[in-house]
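Bench notes, afternoon.
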Amino acid sequence: MRSTSPATCSRSWSISEDSLRRYVFHASENCIQELLSASDSDRSVESSNVNDGWKILAIDNGMEISKRRSGSLHTFRSRWLLKSVSAQQFITVANAIDAAKQWDPDLVEARYIKDLEENLSIIRLRFGDKSKPLFRNREFIVYERRETMDDGTLVVAVASLPKEIADGLHPKQNNAIRGLLLQSGWVVEKLEDGSCMVTYIVQLDPAGWLPKCFVNRFNTKLVMIIENLKNQVLACSTNGDA
């Protein structure tokens, strides 16, 4: 059973586990709906999404990367078809938090802070002082909720906790900059031939003083690392069939 030491600070909120569970459940409901809406807007990787605000940035090796303005930042979306890989096989690799550094080389630490329910957790993501400049010394305290919809679609919703709650659960380190991961996550749709369609949505504010163009470039690079995950999933699938 994962656990964390209680911590308080002058600008943090003390919150009961039951209240935290209720807050995260409510917040993640909205996140799930946003993810499903973004993934449902156009199932064709080769199509343009002009009508719903998505602008395609690149189509490379069957993977589409697009963006849509969301307030002062952009939301980025990556989609691809994984043939002969089931939705469950993909999620098993994508949710293997201990192995996340294999597909995100800038990630220094990813660990569970608290399990609220079987499918609802609080996680700390940390990027170190040797990461790329836009990642350097950033950390994120996020919830992760995993749901299976009635049609078998798997959804993993991830977003940062409010600063005061995050500080109460895990005080910020002196040299760390706490970024905000806005409504983000995975939608993995089951296909009849045992393949799956994967959609990854991310909207991120790395915080600290960064020009807006750097922040948006940071988002683009973040989505690009999903190519590493795609390759890892395919390699695991091949090894499993061997």
